[in-house]
Amino acid sequence: MKQLNSHNFEKVYKWLGINLDTLGCVMLDVESINIPSKKDNQTLPSFYYAKDRERFWIDGWVASKNAHITLLYGLLGDGKDFGLHIKEVLEGWELKTIKIKDIGYFESPYPDESYYCVVAHIEMTSNLLEGHQRLEFLPHINTFTGYKPHLTLAYINKDEVMRDIFITNLKKELVGKSIEIKSLNLGDKK
What is the pTM for the complete model shown? Predict the structure, then answer.
């Protein structure tokens, strides 16, 4: 079955007066991951940068700039405005590290932006899932079905061959790696 997401129903959100690109989020900032070094004549793909600068997050190799995993996206307001409520639902919950399970990609949901988003899939632990579920008690819209924690590594130009080579090389370097959690981020657009 095709992965459904809120972009499949943009008309509904327009009717409701909701802009899907401005929903609030709660993230966990993690240690940076540097761009891989070229080894054994391997080449890196061409990185992709958003044509529409309002999509500031589409910015080439992002894992060294603002590495994070999203605990919950879709808050019906800015994360900072929910700060006290977030603190309350996360009271007693803590996560110190995450572990990279696999490397994959997804295609751009925007018809005017043609790229692949390369991601590190994060191992789902009961503790990570609990953090997400606690936040689901706050007013939000699920923009994708099911919680699939991931760390965005890079946005790259569409080239299937380079994508597959890049992902294979990243798997060798990153799968199984533990990443330290630095802090809770309520959507600070650094």
Answer: 0.85
User: For residue range 94-153, what is the model confidence (pLDDT) as tens digits?
Assistant: 999 999 999 999 999 888 999 999 999 999 999 999 999 999 999 998 888 788 999 999
Q: What's the CA gap between 176 and 146, in Å, rounded?
A: 23
Instruction: Please tell me the predicted confidence (pLDDT) of residue 42.
Output: 66
Spell out the domains of the chain, with CATH numbers in brackets: 25-185 (3.90.1140.10)
Query: What was the pLDDT predicted at 190?
Result: 46
d(CA 111, CA 50): 12
- Name the percent of the chain in helix, strand, coil, to the closest 5: 25, 30, 45
Which residues partner with 122 through β-bridges? 100
Give which of 115, 2, 125 is closest to 59, Cα–Cα.
Answer: 115
Does residue 122 contact residue 128 with C-beta atoms inside 8 Å? Answer: yes
**Alpha helix positions (H), the chain:** 10-16, 83-89, 126-135, 160-174
